[in-house]
Fold:
Amino acid sequence: MTLTICTAQLNVTVGDMAGNAQKIIAAARTAYERGARLVLTPELSICGYPAEDLLLRPAFIAACDDAVKTVARELAGLKGLHVVVGHPRGGDIRSKSVQVHMRWNSASVLSEGRTIETYNKRELPNYQVFDEYRYFTRGQGTCVFQVEGVNVGLLICEDAWFEEPAQLARASGAQLLVVPNASPFHVGKSGERIARMAERAQNVDLPLVYAHSVGGQDEVVFDGGSFAVNADGSLAARAPAFVEDLFFVTATPGASSYLLSGPMAPDIGDDEELWHALVMGVRDYIGKNGFPGVLLGLSGGIDSALVLAIAVDALGKDKVRSVMMPSPYTAEISWLDAAEMCQRLGVRYDEISIKPMFESFLQALSKEFAGLKEDTTEENIQARIRGVLLMALSNKFGSIVLTTGNKSEMATGYCTLYGDMAGGFAVIKDVFKTVVFRLARWRNANDPYQTGANPIPERIITRPPSAELRPDQVDQDSLPPYEILDGILARYMENDQSIEEIAAAGFDRAIVERVARLVRINEYKRRQAPVGIRVSHRGFGKDWRYPITGKFRA
Structure:
């Protein structure tokens, strides 16, 4: 018998159990009308992922339980429909000193008003941004249920990356595997997922449907792109990435296994994927937290230009405001390019000179600084004046300040505490400077959200980058060329290579040692930085937990 499966690729909100339940109910009703008898929702779809320490609160688990009951009750009249809903369940045995988990990352199969099966995730990831040992107990056993005569084996996310859970499902009679997921995005992850699920399908000789979440949650982004693979590992269907979607897959009896078929969304390249991830990260952080809009300091440089373009694509021009804050060292072309970019995108542009405030600071400190030459102190004063102005506008009008620092700067401390680091959301915190340039060129060649073609003036991209905090300053006065710096950082920070290994790869050892030292001594700054979007396999956030005080040298 043919079975129609719908993957409800939903953008749920952490903690909005009632709202998430209604999304699931609406999706299930639509899917049922279109012939689906099995609806899959993402991992922990009732509460959102990651819910972090909300999971430790008994009232949170109770609200999740109530939401699952609501979904079952509201869909009770849809005869033959089976809906897989992800939710936490259970509690803890705990005192102030000891806590024993009795809580599971679960998925329940709801049908005609009842919970007919519940499966507990067996493999708990505890690496990169994952921290599931903190919250969950490993599940045991298998879950195989029948829909329209098809034996469906249920796994949850990480379970499908290991052999045993799928083998046990097959041994229990499964003819088809379904896998709810909440797998955070990083560049290249979508291809890796498909390859691993194809390998799993081949290993057990069963077709597999991968149901994935979509949306932004604090620093992580879920990219959607749910898919199905046949028992031979071939890709049978794929949902679009970075959008909510009801994705239908048909399972048809074949000679030796069920054959899956469905729509095939086009594959997208790394730069387009990265752009959509950054846009979604901004849109959902602003939207889910209820901010009326954003504002940012626009300098005429490449970083703020890129952040402005992302913000407009995410929110539309009317919710974005830019402020140019020239100092005595701001070049005229910076003014001109910043204003031109705002004109191209139709964004509000204001100017507030920091020159009188800077002079007041220098006058107030003149006695203390007498006889001392100017250094980074005066540079940082300018950055901090700008931070105060932006935060004052944020307080007055409610818009959140987007910071514009990139990963290369965050790694090496080429940023000012309470200055350019002042703000609420760091859009390109996980984007190396070399990738910033690449993305700027990609956006000028593409207009994915129809907000304006070629938004970034060419001179912004081609000018040598500069903080413009002293005369004739360029970034390379203080840092190695970005091609070299980013190459070292990728090896040292993202891949944990030693100084010896990086030098052996052809990098100058003295430069490698200097970069490693900069990374080490600037941990205190990163601890005080705003949260930002994670788009690599290792960003400065949950992936990176280094001590500020420490003597180890790599």
Notes: The mean pLDDT is 94. Residues 94 and 100 are 6 Å apart (CA to CA).
